[in-house]
Amino acid sequence: MNSRERILGRVRRALADVPDDARPYEEAVARDYLREHGQRSVAQTVDLLAENLADYRARVHRCTDGELPGLVARLLSAHGSGSVVVPPGLPTGWLGAVGTTLVQDSAASTAPELDRVDSVVTGCAVAVAETGTIVLDGSPDQGRRRITLVPDHHICVVRVPDQVVSSVPEALERLDPTRPLTWISGPSATSDIELDRVEGVHGPRTLEVVLLSGS
């Protein structure tokens, strides 16, 4: 008897007393989860997102459409960025007259090439207030997953309140599961080694989230 037969035999014995007419697991288990915790206004939901983003050590900024180009330019300058990778569908007005070299997202770009780029600016698909999470899905204003994992500095623009939801269930309803989803809660970090927090291990060391309002 090989390992596969041994495991399947144990499964059959474990299921021996299950009635033939038992409901499938996916039907028998109740799915009456809360869609969100508590009742919040739209403004309170956005404030909760900002609070939880900051709790994860993301740098949070708020601005209007007209203020965005200037803010992005200041953030890039403050970081000392000489180059920034740009997704193909990023609105041209977001960058304005930044004094940095613009690197277009290209499938031919290698990880070492992207590692030499200082920053990346993207939009997002949705942001989850209760968890302080932004989700990217590879849309034109976000580009390929690689460009948001290799450069050390990520500026992500979230349109509020349109792209902000309260909970993960609400976010999942908006997302296409066939797209390359990247869920980001704060800058990349790990505490695997002696419980010492080290940032920038699996992605950007610095995450800046801009909450963009229309007025």
Could you characterize what this model shows?
The protein is of the alpha/beta class and 215 residues long. It has a single domain, classed as Rossmann fold (3-Layer(aba) Sandwich), CATH 3.40.50.10420. It is 25% helix and 23% strand. The strands form 3 sheets. The protein has a 6-stranded parallel β-sheet, with helices on both faces.
Brief overview:
This protein is of the alpha/beta class and 215 residues long.
Q: What is the topological layout?
A:
Layout: H1 3-14, H2 25-28, H3 42-55, E1 59-64, H4 68-79, E2 83-86, E3 101-104, H5 111-115, E4 119-122, E5 126-128, E6 133-136, E7 153-159, E8 164-165, H6 168-174, E9 182-184, E10 189-190, E11 198-199, E12 206-213
Parallel strand pairs: 1-12, 2-3, 2-4, 4-7, 5-8, 7-12
Antiparallel strand pairs: 5-6, 6-9, 10-11
Organism: Streptomyces tendae
Domain LUD: 105-212
Protein name: Lactate utilization protein C
Q: How far is the N terminus from the C terminus?
A: 70 Å
Quaternary structure classification: single chain
Overall strand count: 12
- Provide the CATH superfamily: NagB/RpiA/CoA transferase-like
Number of domains: 1
Output the keywords.
215 residues, alpha/beta, Rossmann fold, six-stranded parallel beta sheet, four-stranded mixed beta sheet, 12 strands, globular, Lactate utilization protein C, LUD_dom, FTHF_cligase-like_sf, NagB/RpiA_transferase-like
